[in-house]
C-alpha cells in the first residue's frame, strides 16, 4: 500500500434517502455523523452515557493522512487551539532522580488533544444537523430486505436503513450482531488504568515516569491545572477475571498489584486511587474481526479494529469514518457495495496501525530490570537530535500508509451547503 494523499478523486452522491443509526458518541461516531450529514443522510447518534464523556486520555495525530482528514473535516484549527501543549516527560529512579528526559515530540505527535475535547469539537460541529440521544443503548436488531428494526433499553422502537457500531473496544453492537467478543479480543498480557489525583508534584504540562519489572506508574499534568494531575498504571499480568462495571473491585486489583512500589511518590499517588471518583481500567488488547460488516450493520473504529493503546486508534477511527462515509456516498447508498469498498480501503491500514501497538505493554512496563535499562537506552537514542527526524518518520509511517481518496460531493440539492471540504 502506498503512502499518498489527494491521489485520486471519487464522485460522491447525496445520501438524502438514508436514515442511519450510529451507536457511540465518543469520536468515531460523531466523526462519521459529520460526514454523513454533509452527504445529506439523516443521522441519529446513540450514546449509553447520560452526556458527553469529558477528559479521558490525551490522543495524538501524526503524518499527512491524519492531517488531511482533520483539514477536510474543517477541525484542524480548532484541534490546534485546544491541544495539550504537553512538554517533556521524565523517567526517574526510585528516589526521583532523573534518568531519561523525553522531549515532547516523541510522545505527542504533530498535535495532541484530550479525547473529551475532541469529542466536544465533533459534537458542537454536528448537533445542528444530527440527532443525539443520550442515556440509552441498543437492545436488539432485526434486519429484513428493506431496513433494520431497532429496540432500545429505554426509548421506543425505531427503524433505520443502516446501523453503525462505533461503540468502542467492548462494542455492544458487535456483540449483538457478531456474537460474544471473546473470539475477537486479543489480550496482550498487560493492563492499564487511569485516574485523577491532586497535583502534589507541582507538574505543569510535564510528566514523571517510574518503572519496576512489570509495573509502571506515570504522574502527568497535561492541561496546566495547578490542582489536578493524572495517574496512569500499567502492569503485566495473566488474564484477570473481574467485573468491568465493578470500580471498587478494580481499585482492589490495582492496590494489590502496586503495593510496595519503590518510587518515593508512589504511596501518595495510590492514596488518590482510593478516593478517585472515576477510574479507567482495561486490558491492553486488540480487536480482530473476520469482516467489518454483516448485512446492514458495519463496525467503525475500536469496535472493528481497536487497540487499547499505541495503535493510533483515534486517528485510525477518524480516517475510517471519512472512508466509510465517502464509499457509501460513492455507492449511492448501496450498503453492500459501500461497506465492501470501505473494508477494502481500511483493513490493511488499520492492521498496520494495530501492528505497532503490539509491544506497547512490554515497552511501557518492561518485565525485568535488564529490559527497563534497555528501554531507557532506546529512549535516550530516540531523544537525540541525530535520530529525531528518523524516529518521527518511523512513527508516522503506519499512520500515513494509505492512498487517501478525495470524495467530491456533487454540489446540488439542499445539502450542497454542507459540503465544506477544501
From TrEMBL:
Domain FAD-binding: 19-175
Gene3D superfamilies tied to this protein: D-Amino Acid Oxidase, subunit A, domain 2 (3.30.9.10), FAD/NAD(P)-binding domain (3.50.50.60)
Matches recorded under SUPFAM superfamilies: FAD/NAD(P)-binding domain
GO molecular function annotations of the record: FAD binding
UniProt-listed InterPro entries: FAD-bd, FAD/NAD-bd_sf, FAD_aromatic-hydroxylase
The protein's name: FAD-dependent oxidoreductase
Native organism: Streptomyces alboniger
